[in-house]
Amino acid sequence: MATAALISLVVAMLSFQVGASVAKQLIPLVGAPGTTALRLGISALVMVVARRPWRSLPSRAAVPVLVAYGLSLGTMNFVFYQSLRTIPLGIAVGLEFTGPLAVALLGSRHRMDYLWVALAVLGLACLLPVTRASAHLDPSGVAYALAAGVCWALYIVFGKKAGHTHGAEASTWGMLIAAAAIVPIGVADAGRALLTADVLPRGFAVAMLSSALPYSLEMVALRRLSTKTYGTLMSVEPAIAALAGLLLLGEHLALLQWVGIGAVMVASVGTLGDEPSVTEQMP
Fold it and tell me: Which residues, including other chains, have CB under 8 Å from residue 216's CB and lie 6 or more apart?
């Protein structure tokens, strides 16, 4: 059972990064807003068919939290895809990971956390365009990736509140709200190009690989793995992203950039302790 859960989680992480690689190849065709619209729009349609959210309408008290949750999800995807226009996938995910890492560190009270803060700062310094290895990185792409990290942190905070106020259907409503906010922007930017025979199948692949399939597999893993094991494995995500970028997109990173990704990963594992992992709230 544990082996099946481990395999499910590994496949989920691989699926997510393959989906991100497909999205990066789609961005030149319809732009980052259009790519985001395809992912969120198709994912929302799939969730409507699968979950039938009209059977669980949110209460008036739950609506503000669900809106904040959905907007953080939509904005996170939007700015992350904006970052992929100009910086490698592995670096974008490494920078984005600082969001949940910051949530974990802010909520911790252990002395050892000073070490994890130092490692996180070291990793961030290696990935920012302040070293020779990363000097060529586009500052706007870096800023978008860091903004995605901020949105991920907000997604975690509001996601927990939404789950408490509306239960399991909070994720469905969050996706619907995210799609309602972002799809019009993508349609306005890309127009009919979103529905071409060359684009639509890729958009469907992004939605399935980056949302439907990994989320389903993660639910299998969560039911059978301890929170600490789950969080530790999820911390490998930046390395998987860097490998996906190398193998699928031909993105070669400098040694110092690999060191930065590794430092962020170790800091993420170190913050787990005995507490629930914030990386359970994967975007």
Answer: none
